[in-house]
Amino acid sequence: MVWWRASSADIDVNPDLASERAAPSFCVESLTNLLDGSVEKTRVRRYVVSTILKDPVFSKENHYFKTRQERYEGAIRNSFHLKQKIKELGWREDGPEGEVIYRAMGGELALNIHGVFIKSILALGTDEQVAKWIPLANNCNILGTYAQTELGHVGKTCTHAVVLAHLIIKEKNYGMHPFIVQVRSLKDHSPMPGITVGDIGPKMCFEQIDNGFLMMRNICVPKENMLSRYSEVLPDGTYVKRGSDKINYFTMVAVRVSMLRAEVLEALMKACTISIRYSAVRRQSELKPGDREPKILEYQTQQQKLLPLLATCYAIHFTTCHVNKVYDEVYGAIQAGNFDSLPELHALVSGIKAYATEICSNGIEVCRKACGGHGYSLFSGLPSLYTKVTASCTYEGENTVLHLQAARFLIKCYAAARSGQSLPHSVAYLSSPISGACQASSHTHFLNPDVYIKAYQHRAYRLIDSAAFKMRNLVQSGMEQYAAWNSTSVELVKASIAHTHYIIVKLFADVLDSLSSFPEIQKVLKSLCDLHALHGIFTNSGDFLQDGHLSGKQLEMLTEAYLGLLSLIRRDAVLLVDAFDYADQQLLSALGSYDGNVYYNLLECAQKNPDNKKVNAVFENYLKPHLQSNISKL
Ligand SMILES: CCCCCCCCCCCCC/C=C/C(=O)SCCNC(=O)CCNC(=O)[C@H](O)C(C)(C)COP(=O)(O)OP(=O)(O)OC[C@H]1O[C@@H](n2cnc3c(N)ncnc32)[C@H](O)[C@@H]1OP(=O)(O)O
Ligand SMILES: Cc1cc2nc3c(=O)[nH]c(=O)nc-3n(C[C@H](O)[C@H](O)[C@H](O)COP(=O)(O)OP(=O)(O)OC[C@H]3O[C@@H](n4cnc5c(N)ncnc54)[C@H](O)[C@@H]3O)c2cc1C
């Protein structure tokens, strides 16, 4: 496998892949720059990635043969070595390098939750608490974790935890508050008195990370260990609140935002790169009678599996850019004492976290299956992407729970709109429902973003309206509010999904408007935006047909436009994944390397299996007596 993607001529690229790159309709490098944010950001990312890939300490040689202990130890070593390297090279974790380091490391780090611990203190601690704890944490003099759920956070490494626990003063419960608790001795790493702590054991993935259990009995936490930027207990027991009581949940918002690009979308982009490159070199069956076996990417069904996912990568990418921007604005306002936009941010991030993790993890599994038998091999890189990312549907808030959080906000905003109040930007459409059916009268009309954005907006409005209507009726008929909520929760989740999808489609279309100085890029992204939107309607057609916004005839037109887009984007598919710009060592895939030499790579990987280098012990122990009992007859 190559060191960096081949811009030089010294690597023989599989001709089937070379032909895909022969006549690009757009400049791949410009698209890479757009995805990175600028030419300079591409330069910095490549510099960081190549610096990391060149360092032998970070080598992923024999990655797929490592034991859990080797992965854990390696990830701890990587984490400390990286800290040292960042210092030596003068990189800034809160600067341009910091944005890409985690992605460049491919997640093979062990102190991610230490980062969450730090984020919590920075966001929720007073200036004095920040001054006391942050230098210790930054220098790894203490190792932190974030302990909110009953199980699953503390493991083998940490010494301290931000524990989210109920604050009860004189029998009055003030809700969840963050406390710094020391769980292990800094001298010998043994649990502190009253603490039971350990690793929860083998998991579906995340072998490199220790997730733990924690029990606390009669632990006395000093008052100054309660993170008190926004709420404080005075010496006489008086509780003082500053700003919103929801702010103690802020760490979750921050982590949900940072995981979207670095952990979740990253995995789908890699899976698309692998499966689309493989589909351009794998030849199978017969398309035109008598002709050579075609590339599997020529099959319309293969295109329908992979190309909407490719479009989704771009859609989620632009969404994460927007979410980061909104997050920075709202966090800035919160620091200045204005909490007004926190509910909107929480709802936006909850819906998008749930939507993106679900679509990315399901999508990676589609990519894996689309690679046939080789997709099942760990060497394809696809199984480990899936087992890793499927965890993100659960951690940082289980997805149904998060959609219900978003729906709670939508229902409140819907009610506010009906009583004439103005609404925050992301839900402003709830004040002005779209009236009338879709006017499209030919398949080309469905390539107009105004047409499909209206359809998405209409669907979201209708589902929110209908959930609100049902709840109101249930309550009016005597049902308690909580029971009405539960009886409507299936529709509420659906409403949150529809709202989130509307936001994603709209954001993608808005990006197109800003690209008029790059017409070739604008053209190809427009096709991806159309495909993303039409795929969503095609696969959820019932929602759009239900109240007649679209007719059956219009769905046929839309299907024609949708299938046309598959063959259009198929031409650029390899270039569109090349633009993600992954080095082979980042993909860790025998199927997805830039040169497309799949069978050579598979053989090379298999030969690295240490078991292939010697006769296996089962020969002596079990096979030999059978094989040799009749050897004279052969
Ligand atoms: C470059 C860096 C790269 C980093 C890459 C990162 C990679 C990551 C690798 C892997 C890391 C894994 C780490 C995993 C960590 C965890 O999982 S930590 C645990 C996270 N847990 C959750 O997310 C729990 C999910 N549940 C909730 O969020 C619940 O809402 C709740 C917070 C537990 C509260 O539930 P409940 O008591 O039932 O309250 P509600 O009635 O639902 O809500 C009360 C009001 O509070 C509002 N609200 C809820 N959450 C938030 C929030 N986060 N922010 C703001 N506001 C919030 C909610 O809307 C309600 O408001 P009102 O309607 O006004 O009453
Ligand atoms: C890899 C990994 C790392 C993690 N790291 C951490 C960590 O560092 N710190 C930490 O504190 N936690 C951590 N967690 C825990 C994680 O945050 C929780 O697992 C997650 O929030 C879900 O909570 P739960 O496990 O209690 O699931 P549950 O809440 O029990 O969910 C189980 C089912 O119940 C349903 N359900 C629950 N509540 C509702 C509701 N109100 N309405 C409708 N349905 C509902 C869910 O939809 C789901 O189907 C981690 C988890 C994983 C997998």
Query: What is the 3D shape?
Result: globular
Distance between the termini: 43 Å
Structural class label: mainly alpha
| Share of helix, binned | 40-55%
Strand content: 5-15%
Low-confidence stretches: 1-9
Taking all residues together, what is the mean pLDDT? 95
Main sheet summary: 3 strands, mixed
Report Rg.
27 Å
CATH top level label of the domain at 142-242: Mainly Beta
| CATH homologous superfamily designation of the domain at 142-242 | Butyryl-CoA Dehydrogenase, subunit A, domain 2
Number of helices: 22
Main location: other
Domain Acyl-CoA oxidase C-terminal: 448-628
Domain Acyl-coenzyme A oxidase N-terminal: 28-142
Family: Belongs to the acyl-CoA oxidase family.
List keywords for this structure.
phosphoprotein, 6% strand, two-stranded antiparallel sheet, oxidoreductase, Acyl-CoA_oxidase, binds flavin-adenine dinucleotide, acyl-CoA oxidase activity, 634 residues, 55% helix, mainly alpha, Butyryl-CoA Dehydrogenase, subunit A, domain 2, ACOX_C_alpha1, globular, binds ligand LEDWP2DD
